[in-house]
Design goal:
The chain is mostly beta strands. It has one helix spanning about 60-70, and strands at about 5, 5-10, 10-20, 25, 35-40, 45-55, 80, 85-100, 105-115. Strands 2-1-7-8-9-6-3 form a 7-stranded antiparallel β-sheet, with helices on one face. A hairpin with a 4-residue loop joins β7 and β8 (about 85-100). The radius of gyration is 19 Å and the shape is elongated. The two termini are about 25 Å apart. The mean pLDDT is about 95.
Length: about 120
């Protein structure tokens, strides 16, 4: 079961990890790409995107949403994310959820995390 700071993420439907290199790339005038200057100066970043759903009573779903939003409180420090395939120290970049009429005991969500240290 996936968690962030020991808070359950319910039913995880997908976990996506993207690691980007912030490369310095400078093509040279009148030259082909093989002559471009390419340097790894700026380090890397990892974004983890989780989609899932909470299926429970309305009261428990409200509590689950509140627990995640309490982590994303405007003064975040890194917290552990324990996923299905990876465990990383992260902060929450965005958290969105949607309630669909007719499914009173189900809420879908997307959680975007950035790996790092504070």
């Amino acid at each position: 079961m996936a968690t962030i700071n020991s808070v359950s993420l319910g039913i995880v439907q997908s976990e996506e990890s993207t690691k980007d290199s912030n490369l310095f790339f400078f093509p040279l005038p009148y030259s082909d790409s093989e002559s471009a200057i390419l340097l790894d100066l700026m380090g890397t970043s990892r974004t983890i995107t989780i989609t899932g759903k909470f299926v429970d009573s309305k009261e428990n779903i409200i509590t689950a949403i509140g627990n995640i939003e309490a982590i994303q409180n405007g003064r975040q420090s890194t917290v552990p994310y324990v996923g299905e395939l990876i465990t990383k120290n992260v902060q929450i970049q965005s958290f969105s959820w949607s309630y669909v009429q007719g499914s009173p005991n189900e809420v879908n969500y997307t959680l975007t995390l950035l790996e790092g240290s504070s």
